[in-house]
């Protein structure tokens, strides 16, 4: 597997915010920017609006675990930034994993496999609707 590194500098985050696509859910906002090469880089942002240090660190841990859970099916070179939202503090990691998986599918970082193991045809089909209804 290619190297996974983290975004460290402010200008790297700003580049993803400005030029990347964003995907929003109640728990996390995901920004994705396709690159020409260099593997996958990720960053996690939690603001003080989330809560104290304990809550922010828990949100980061949950997001990181959910991202690495979905990582084996990732393909291509991307910069990805996850921004935790207030409800991220009190959700289970399985729900966060579903949110992040859905965002990465929408960004085409990972390919969706439906229950039968086939690739999904169109975005917005019945499986998409069922997934969204389950999240809400």
Strand/helix succession: EHEEEHEHH
Q: Look at the structure and give the CATH class.
A: Alpha Beta
Content of β-strand: 15-25%
Multimeric state of these chains? single chain
Order of strands side by side in the largest beta sheet?
1-4-5-3-2
Number of helices: 4
What is the SS-derived class? alpha/beta
Q: How many E strands?
A: 5
Short structural summary:
With 136 residues, this protein is of the alpha/beta class. 38% of the residues lie in helices and 20% in strands.
Structure description:
With 136 residues, this protein is α/β, with parallel strands linked by helices. It has a single domain, classed as Ribosomal Protein S5, domain 2, CATH 3.30.230.10. The protein has four helices and five strands; from the N terminus they run E-H-E-E-E-H-E-H-H. It has a five-stranded mixed β-sheet, with helices on both faces. It is globular, with a radius of gyration of 15 Å.
Strand and helix map with partners:
Elements: E1 4-6, H1 10-19, E2 21-24, E3 28-34, E4 40-45, H2 53-70, E5 78-84, H3 93-106, H4 126-135
Parallel strand pairs: 1-4, 4-5
Antiparallel strand pairs: 2-3, 3-5
Name a few traits of the molecule.
Ribosomal Protein S5, domain 2; five-stranded mixed β-sheet; 136 residues; 20% strand; alpha/beta; 5 strands; globular
